[in-house]
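Internal ticket #5521
Category: modeling
Description: The requester needs a full-assembly model to guide mutagenesis choices. All entity lines are attached below as received. Residue total reported by intake: 450.
Assigned to: D.W.
Attached entities:
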Amino acid sequence: MCAVQEEALCGSLERRGLSDLNRIGRLRRVERGETIAWAGEESRNCANILSGLFKLSASTADGREQTVGLLYPADFVGRPYAPRTDYNVTALSEAEICVFPRPAFEETLESDSALEREFLRRTLTALDEARSRQLMLARQTAEQRIARFLLDMAKKMGGARPTPGGPRTFDLPLSRGAIADVLGLTIETVSRQMTKLKAARIIALPGGRAVTIIREAELRGLTAE
Amino acid sequence: MCAVQEEALCGSLERRGLSDLNRIGRLRRVERGETIAWAGEESRNCANILSGLFKLSASTADGREQTVGLLYPADFVGRPYAPRTDYNVTALSEAEICVFPRPAFEETLESDSALEREFLRRTLTALDEARSRQLMLARQTAEQRIARFLLDMAKKMGGARPTPGGPRTFDLPLSRGAIADVLGLTIETVSRQMTKLKAARIIALPGGRAVTIIREAELRGLTAE
DNA sequence: CGCCTTCTTGACTCCTGTCAAGTCCCGTGG
DNA sequence: CCACGGGACTTGACAGGAGTCAAGAAGGCG
């Protein structure tokens, strides 16, 4: 039943506990662009992502948006132990999720210490990531952010390499606008930086949302990390 | 023994568990400016803050620094379940901490589910805060950051109000440089913004690191949240 | 009182945001 | 098959906020 069982939260469970969580979970298909949780709303459900990509975002009073995290298959969605959620969760692609009512999930956490420990580990990892994104947003230039983003995406997306160690091509699962939201930039700046990298022949943009990383070492050099 | 017992992590424990944690903890005094954990270093210890203020920081390759979190009394320091820590932890004032070896702390977490649950809650809160700081660093102007920072600090520091509802005065526990690191700005920009707020008679700067919030409503209006 | 750090202020630069046209891409429908 | 339309993307011109560099002033500690 659970397509991402080895990696997902429920994958850490032994047979018994797993069936507990599966029993309360309900499969749901989500359309691209659909928002499954709104900031300020009561936190009623939690979920595991089975497939697809989501963004976790907040917006300023004047309407500009910032993505504070990307969620991939096997990642967890929701905020246990809080009455409300502070962030929107929106699908960036078609997706499937496994939804639990929050109180039931909390009870399962409390009765299954292996699950709870795994959840704690994941939360600690998410915290490290959120802090690393703070450093990026506060101190990196647009060029450094784009370089880091492309490398991260290449890693996440896999992508074909015609020759071993050679250029790698993959499709960005995000629009320019969504990338801008993630990196704390504007669409125009993202576009200009991509054009600049293309002009420098560090990447190629074969069309659509495809990206080819031609000279990975140079790109890595631009991240200055 | 535990001066912040009601609030600190160990305060959530029942007598039995508490004594477990106290048995492995060791009191330590820390000087202002002292760094008790270095990024990239092996994660050997965890600690509870008993008194004082710490910053959690990272730096870019070119040496600029960013504070990714402030740690107050009763807050937890360290990274269980990871071999290395990614951040520096530095005392911004004289401080006292209660130190546990990381493996012993992990064992205690695993054997005491109430402690583990409390630790999970704290980690979730820290995650929310880290995400909220992402929004600030990505999308707020210098003026908005300063306004929010002053209001946050006023709340944390308490501070005397000569007349109820009237102006409130408190001492900033951070230097201008430390504030700049927290807000993702430079010392000069912090200084200029403070001067601007002073000129607008929204705050006063009586000397030293003291701040008086004269018109709190206006200051709150500037945060645009 | 004097030194040294911290803070303030000024002049200038530059990166990124804003506003405004285009251009590309792709699916739809004639 | 190709023209059309609309969203996504690119490009240009310009402005402005924050960074950088450089003095100076203020404050604290010996």
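Resolution: model delivered.
Comment from assignee: The domain at 9-137 of chain B is CATH 2.60.120.10 (Jelly Rolls).
Ticket closed.
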